[in-house]
Sequence to fold (279 residues):
Amino acid sequence: MCSEPDVDIRAGNRWSGGVVAPGLEWAAADFPEHQFTPHRHDGYVVGVTGTGVQRFTYRGAERLSLPGEVFLLHPDERHDGRPGTKAGFGFRAVYLSPDHVLAALDQSALPFSPEPVHDAQAVSELVLSVFDVWSGGEPDDLAVNDAVCLMADLFQRVSDQRGAPGLARRGKRIDPLIRRVREDLMSVTDAPVMIRDLERRHGLDRFTLSRDFRRAFGVTPSRFILLRRLDRARVMLRQGQSLADVAVTAGFADQSHMTRHFRATYGLTPGRWRDMQVS
Fold:
């Protein structure tokens, strides 16, 4: 575990990003000094290290990503991030939610790559081409869809065919009931979600619901709700709203509650995340 670092914006740490569509994002970063605390994403993160050396801990081992190499992180895998040398590091990355990947591959098990760093030039060029399309303005629906298919095929190509622990077998489509549970949870705002209400609305017992949801989407229903609240918080932070107002509106008990979960998910506090945004 590493403690939260002191992010000095004056040192040149910069982060920019955008949402292409629900569940699809891009980000570019230049970190002379910044370190991410251990955190998890609910979707795939795939990017190219552009400058410096990126060092991170993933699945219990130290990893290095050199300039031009691709890093691929699986949903809900805990990791951190920090410079591998005094020169710092930079990257360009895209983020895809599991439902997009599953729909593109028409299966119920998420592709899983135990090796998070890949040095094939063709893979790097593919990732950068998708990044350029997504970050270059307002891509049309067809371009976005094509990019999702390319990324899903990439994940499948580099995956371990045995799949990740706890995930369903390949070749079976997601149960429509589980898709409807996800749609239901997408609409959750600040009200608590009661498991008995989900059981009643969807006709599933609580254990099947939780187990099958995680197999399909890589995270549990409760974490899925938490991450959607954090999504709303990021939108409001970009709009310049106060941390206290964001916390309440996004459905957290208070600012400290939001800060704790924000840092555990993104590796830095909401205030520092907001300050690092590049217009």
Q: What stands out?
A: Strands lie at 14-21, 24-31, 36-39, 44-52, 54-58, 61-65, 70-73, 79-83, 89-96, 117-118. The longest strand covers residues 44-52.
